[in-house]
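Hi V.,

You were right to ask for the full record rather than a summary. Here it is.
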Amino acid sequence: MERKAKGYLRRSVNRPFTLGTRENTRVTVTVRDELFRVSPKRENRYFCFSRRNSASVFIFSLRRVFMKNYRVGVIGATGMVGQRFLLLLANHPWFTVTVLAASARSAGKTYTEAVGDKWAFETPIPEQYTAMTVLNAEADMDKIASAVDFVFCAVNMDKAKIRALEETYAKMEIPVVSNNSAHRFTPDVPMVIPEINDNHLEVIPAQRARLGTKRGFIAVKSNCSLQSYVPLLHPLKKFGIQEAAVCTYQAISGAGKTFTTMPEILDNIIPYIGGEEEKSEKEPLKIWGEVQKGEIISASSPAITAQCLRVPVSDGHTAAVFVRFENKPSKQEILTAWAEFKGVPQELGLPSAPAQFLKYLEEDNRPQAKLDRMEGNGMSVTVGRLREDHVYDYKFVGLSHNTLRGAAGGAVLLAELLAAKGYFD
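Predicted structure:
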């Protein structure tokens, strides 16, 4: 990349790239050897670039304002979600893992030694991690803080201890992107599905004021069960959702288990998952809430009732959803709302964002966990069997990958969004 005087920039690229410029900087770029110039038109914080001697218009976001690579720590690196983080980050274009941390039991060992025979994936441990020494997530905080720009956190501890751990890192000026539930209902901690409520990140300055930090903060992702129905309900809110009933059928990896470590699930369904139903009913209301006076105030509606079952599936949470509207849409209006919906991650072209966030499958026997959980590299939500209901207005079935979209992948996408909006800088 060649930077010229007065903020001008010229670059020739054959793939999507990030502009290393500030807002309001005049820019000239070459894309596939064709020159583009800045149009004076600006809409929704995006700049329009138009092809010289052509009516074609191309959109580039100057909110993605960095060429920086961020140093990342993974707290809880030996657990199943931590392992998934490492697979996702092994070749990430923006994030480089510099620290692995876990409990005192794993500290001081190489990552391979610490994981032992508990590596949960067919893909082997990426080579760059095998010889890294695992640090103690609690005792080695100073060492960790000096080696990272932010951390992902996915630990198996008491909730009070998790809250204290994450706040300590934040107060050490290390942003925390958490997969844990401990801070989901802390009023000034944003709980974000990036395509739905990115505006909740606006509460971070208030959280920093409470914590007494300039850079440190905590942002969390929502529960894995929500991903298979909340993204599907969200585009339908314009029709006035009054109430929804949801039954989730949740994979064993959501409990950090495999068929080897959870043999009791074979030929079985367990009709109870501790705490899941409360999360499934209450968390959507915070996601649909509003930032007011430095806090996120949960929405008062729609009413959601949920049942959550553990089923003998390795990966992929399925939801059977029933919904009633104030203004009942047609089936085609629902399908159009899903097909056309996209969020800020798609507009920005974030590395982990699927091109098609919500995908409707026409076959009567879809979506299926085994066939459809990897749609969009595991980051899309698939849906099928939309039909009218004689008790509610409509019913449908949704599916999401619980350790990708629902856990580590969703957290990585949230971190990309935070980076793109400048919260790590």
